[in-house]
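Z., the sequence and structure:
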Amino acid sequence: MTQPNSGLQRLFSFLNSLLPVLLGIFLLFVIVQLCIDYGILRPAVESAAGTGPTIGADGVFEWDLLQVHDTPFVNGADASIKFVPEPPRAKVGFVQIVRTQDLYKPDRFYYPSDEKRGRSSNGWYVDRWDGALFPIFGMKNDCSEGTNVEIRNIATMIDRPYRPDRAPYLGVRWQAVVVPVPVPLAGQDFKEALKTKLGYYYWNWTVTKNGTLKDVNEGLARETLKDDIKNAFKKWWGTKGEVRCPPIERLTEK
């Protein structure tokens, strides 16, 4: 005769046999999660400078890491970039295109403003403040230089990008492509002049899920990024009319 609790006993015995397996799976999950949090493991997103052959440059880049910011408040890195065109140009400036990509969901991107989101392409957007007339990094709306750039026969810039040390900016990669371009002469349309690109230089830094800054990398950009950069330029010009230097309104006042 079957005992009334024999079915329960078999169930408990079966569950008890599974306990070591379940414990092992749980421990494995914890280990993997810790590795992800501390940057030991992470999903394969775009490598330091993309994939494929590098894009050539009509000149020489010099990139220098100035300072790393890894605090309970912000994460980021300061860098200086210099470009010497070959052959020489009368005036050269930089256009920088950036994006902040989620390491674990590579098709998710984060933006510091809705304006930048609206003119982005695959997460990339021209790195200029809302309301800027010109895409040249550090150029003011009156066509003068900002304090962090030199727009001359040799282009230089200092950038200090950072993101808050809190969600959603944990587990992200900040990326930038710097494009030196010939700056148009007075009265020349920027859109036409900036069709000439003198090179492409890539730099990035990564923030793990626990807020640690890692992997500050740089190098010549890869061919796979070229279409993204082209589309980011298109999105920028899609929000602007014809712009000249000096601005059109200043020309008409004279």
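Residues 42-48, 250-254 have pLDDT under 50 and may be disordered. Residues 59-253 form one domain.

Let me know what you think.
H.
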